[in-house]
């Protein structure tokens, strides 16, 4: 594990402004990570507030506990998925929430730990599960077990990778000789399967395929689709949901959900267009470059 890996919260001021938390309110950080946003939310809630933090990753939860533990307000930090927020809140006997934040994807803490298998830049097992206790498939299971057409579909849809067919074919050809078990071996196979010019692009050629596999391993889009509904339903009237997305598939889902609530007159969209990070923030925190923030208020 990378013990002191830092994660800088993305667009913190904009998130706080959109959440508009009052002292004494109850708020949920559904993607707690290292507790960066949560500690700012805690400050806004004040000593009489109640902060509920959720993460599906045990290691992140422990990091957040270290950071938030000393704060003087009511805090519940729990392992779970935000799509099960209703059950989590029932367990806490909390019925309505004033503000919910979802900062999607993984944190630098997870990315920078080679043992988690999220990064193609360092050697590690091809795992990519956010919840390492889950029975779910690892990236290695998908890469070695799926049919070529299924692999191509995942890489094309979740990675928006135009060379998905070539990459899937290269993976299948390689695994016929030996299982693909590490991040670097997969990154090499991807690199060798691509036309030369493509490898000179701005992002590393393995970026999209790794993103696609991570999304598939963690069922991220299904989780987001059902999670948005559950979170919105748990807001009190006037409560707000703020979501930070990092790729177009996520952002499209968020935009369409918000639109459907607005047209049913259940929600008021607070961000006509998604907010993005300033040039200064992008320069100091490269992760913020692809962030898109949207917020909605519950009307009924
Ligand atoms: C981008 S990080 C959040 C960073 C956090 N805002 C901070 O400032 O430290 C996303 C976190 O959400 C967690 N996560 C992703 N999807 C989740 C889900 N469906 N339910 C609960 N946690 C999730 C990941 O494990 C990761 O720790």
3D architecture notes:
By secondary structure, the chain is an alpha/beta fold. The chain has two domains: 12-109 and 220-298, Rossmann fold (3-Layer(aba) Sandwich); 132-217, DNA polymerase, domain 1. Helices cover 44% and strands 15% of the residues. It has helices at 12-19, 36-45, 58-68, 85-92, 108-111, 139-145, 148-159, 164-177, 183-193, 207-217, 220-233, 248-263, 279-284; strands spanning 26-29, 50-55, 74-79, 97-103, 235-245, 267-269, 292-298. The chain has a seven-stranded mixed sheet, sandwiched between helices. It is globular and about 60 Å long. The mean pLDDT is 95. Bound molecules: S-adenosylmethionine. S-adenosylmethionine (SAM) binds at residues 7, 9, 30-31, 33-37, 54-57, 60, 81-82, 103, 105-107, 130, 223, 227.
Briefly summarize what is shown.
The protein has a 7-stranded mixed β-sheet, with helices on both faces. Helices cover 44% and strands 15% of the residues. The protein has helices spanning 12-19, 36-45, 58-68, 85-92, 108-111, 139-145, 148-159, 164-177, 183-193, 207-217, 220-233, 248-263, 279-284, and strands spanning 26-29, 50-55, 74-79, 97-103, 235-245, 267-269, 292-298.
């Amino acid at each position: 594990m990378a013990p002191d890996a830092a994660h800088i919260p993305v667009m913190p001021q904009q998130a706080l402004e959109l959440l508009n938390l009052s002292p004494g309110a109850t708020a949920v950080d559904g993607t707690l990570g290292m507790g960066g946003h949560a500690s700012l939310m805690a400050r806004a809630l004040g000593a009489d507030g109640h902060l509920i933090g959720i993460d599906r990753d045990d290691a992140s939860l422990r990091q957040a506990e270290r950071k938030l533990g000393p704060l003087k307000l009511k805090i519940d930090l729990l392992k779970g998925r935000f799509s099960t927020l209703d059950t989590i809140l029932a367990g806490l006997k909390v019925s309505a929430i004033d503000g919910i934040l979802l900062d999607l994807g993984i944190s630098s803490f997870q990315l920078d730990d080679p043992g988690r298998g999220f990064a193609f830049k360092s050697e590690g097992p091809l795992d990519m599960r956010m919840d390492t206790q889950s029975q779910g498939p690892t990236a290695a299971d998908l890469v070695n077990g799926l049919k070529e057409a299924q692999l191509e579909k995942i890489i094309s849809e979740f990675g928006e990778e135009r060379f998905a067919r070539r990459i899937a074919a290269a993976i299948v050809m390689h695994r016929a000789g030996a299982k693909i078990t590490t991040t670097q071996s997969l990154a090499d196979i991807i690199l060798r399967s691509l036309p030369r010019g493509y490898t000179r692009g701005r992002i590393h050629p393995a970026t999209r395929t790794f993103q696609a596999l991570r999304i598939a391993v963690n069922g991220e889009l299904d989780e987001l689709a059902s999670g948005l509904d559950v979170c919105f339903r748990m807001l009190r009237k006037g409560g707000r949901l703020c979501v930070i997305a990092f790729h177009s598939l996520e952002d499209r889902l968020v935009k369409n959900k918000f639109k459907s609530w607005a047209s049913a007159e259940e929600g008021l969209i607070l961000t006509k267009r998604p907010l993005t990070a300033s040039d200064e923030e992008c320069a100091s925190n490269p992760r913020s470059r692809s962030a898109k923030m949207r917020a909605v208020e519950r009307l009924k």
